[in-house]
């Protein structure tokens, strides 16, 4: 009788557990899931260490490389008023100094071994990754486990990185028109939910952080039971599990706080903010109430967004940019958040055109998709573009690892990217009209208008 792969994995974990130093270093095989569909589907194996660390492993021997992602279930939504930006500050602090590793050594060791690394923080999560030659896999395990457990957070390290983040905020928000518009959109659209504040944090909070704030945040959220490690590449299962067990099994779990997020109440009237900025033309940004990533309507609204904004052949590009010559830039995006977010729409006006003119033209087109079904050609094109984009993002080991970790962290499903692809194919023109009527409501949107400073000064005179 053939032995199933799952049975082999249980036998493997039992074997490795014979030499475990403690219960915290014992593996539990949590099961396999298919990553992909049809004959090309690959297997992702899931394991949980005794201290709560979750590991997803995808063996991919197509190239002699490995990608190592560490996802932490912490983002700006887990912060408190007065302490905004802590999650993002840690993205910087984690590359600084840890016990036995001086500042700059983390990056130097990776570069010497032909690796690349980076990190990202957002509203619901934070991740760190390394992509490196497969034979150097152990280096990623060592470095990541060290900074999970032994990061140095004294005054010099914290002060240094606070200044880096403060300068970043000046560059990407305060001195950047689109960054400031986006921050104002979420600040206005959300009143009680933590999506109200920006991931980078408010400047006064950044400048006020203390080492004690950082130590408390680190001990709470940077723990194995709040982390997911994704390994994808040309590695051997036993080697991966043994190395990770030896490096992480000695790190204790933390007591994670019960999340206390207040749901955003329904928006009953439009909110409008007008700003002046040093820009050559008007800018317009709209935020309609959108569904959470796990909501079935998120998939349908994403298809509608592709019909409206997806490339030069999209409906709004043809109408507002080519035919009516009102805008020079257009984009739309349905926020991929754990909780309900926004359906963002952005337009930059052509010289001599106002944001109000663009809004009127945009609303006319949105009224059409509420009343008339899109054509079959538009629907097929939108689905094809979404599928191509998703599959191209998984051409590499790092792309696969990122998708597995993102969906596992936000939705608890490492294969959700392929489930979304299957769901895209089932969307109908009727579905698009329904979500347009459900979500594209002027009374439940936030409008940000930017006027050029010079025009405003002339009008005042």
What does this structure look like?
There is one protein chain. The termini are far apart. This protein has two domains: 5-248, 2-Layer Sandwich (Cytochrome Bc1 Complex, Chain A, domain 1), CATH 3.30.830; 271-460, Metalloenzyme, LuxS/M16 peptidase-like (Cytochrome Bc1 Complex, Chain A, domain 1). The chain has helices at 5-17, 86-93, 105-112, 137-149, 155-174, 177-189, 203-208, 211-221, 237-248, 296-309, 315-323, 355-371, 376-392, 397-410, 416-426, 429-439, 453-460; strands at 27-35, 42-49, 54-59, 65-72, 116-121, 126-133, 227-233, 271-277, 283-289, 327-334, 342-349, 445-452. The protein is an alpha+beta fold and 461 residues long. Helices cover 44% and strands 20% of the residues. The chain is globular and about 70 Å long. The strands form two sheets. Strands 1-2-3-7-4-6-5 form a seven-stranded mixed β-sheet, sandwiched between helices. A hairpin with a 6-residue loop joins strand 1 and strand 2 (42-49).
């Amino acid at each position: 009788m053939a032995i199933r792969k799952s049975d082999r994995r249980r036998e493997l974990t039992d074997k490795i557990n014979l030499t475990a130093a403690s219960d915290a270093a014992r593996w539990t095989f949590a099961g396999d899931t298919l990553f992909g569909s049809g004959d090309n589907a690959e297997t992702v194996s899931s394991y949980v260490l005794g201290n709560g660390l979750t590991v997803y492993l995808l063996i991919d021997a197509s190239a002699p490389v490995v990608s190592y992602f560490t996802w932490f279930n912490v983002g700006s939504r887990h912060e408190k008023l007065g302490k905004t930006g802590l999650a993002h500050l840690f993205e910087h602090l984690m590359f600084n100094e840890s016990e036995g590793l001086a500042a700059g050594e983390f990056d130097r060791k990776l570069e010497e071994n032909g690796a690349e690394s980076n990190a990202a923080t957002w509203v619901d999560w934070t991740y760190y990754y390394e992509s490196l030659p497969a034979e150097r896999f152990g280096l990623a395990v060592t470095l990541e486990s060290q900074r999970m457990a032994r990061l140095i957070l004294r005054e010099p390290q914290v002060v240094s990185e606070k200044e880096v983040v403060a300068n970043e905020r000046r560059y990407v928000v305060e001195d950047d028109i689109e960054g400031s518009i986006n921050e104002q959109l979420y600040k206005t659209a959300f009143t009680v939910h933590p999506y109200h504040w920006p991931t980078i944090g408010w400047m006064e909070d950044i400048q006020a952080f203390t080492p004690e704030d950082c130590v408390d945040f680190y001990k709470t959220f940077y723990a194995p039971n709040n982390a997911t490690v994704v390994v994808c590449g040309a590695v051997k299962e036993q080697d991966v599990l043994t190395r990770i067990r030896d490096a992480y099994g000695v790190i204790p779990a933390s007591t994670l706080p019960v999340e206390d997020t207040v749901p955003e109440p329904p928006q009953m009237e439009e909110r409008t903010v007008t700003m002046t900025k040093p820009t050559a033309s008007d800018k317009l940004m709209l935020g309609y109430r959108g569904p959470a990533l796990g909501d079935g309507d998120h998939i349908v609204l994403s298809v509608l967004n592709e019909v409206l904004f997806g490339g030069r052949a999209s409906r709004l590009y043809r109408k507002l940019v080519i035919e009516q010559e009102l805008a020079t830039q257009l984009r739309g995006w349905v926020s991929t958040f754990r909780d309900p977010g926004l359906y963002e729409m952005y337009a930059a006006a052509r010289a001599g055109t106002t944001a109000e003119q663009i809004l009127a033209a945009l609303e006319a087109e949105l009224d059409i998709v509420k009343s008339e079904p899109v054509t079959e050609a538009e629907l097929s094109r939108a689905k094809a573009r979404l599928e191509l984009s998703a599959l191209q993002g998984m051409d590499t080991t790092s792309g696969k690892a990122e998708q597995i970790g993102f969906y596992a962290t936000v939705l608890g499903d490492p294969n959700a990217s392929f489930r979304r692809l299957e769901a895209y194919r089932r969307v109908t023109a009727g579905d698009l009209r329904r979500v347009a009527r459900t979500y594209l409501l002027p009374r439940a949107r936030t409008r940000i208008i930017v006027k050029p400073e010079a025009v405003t000064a002339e009008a005042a005179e």
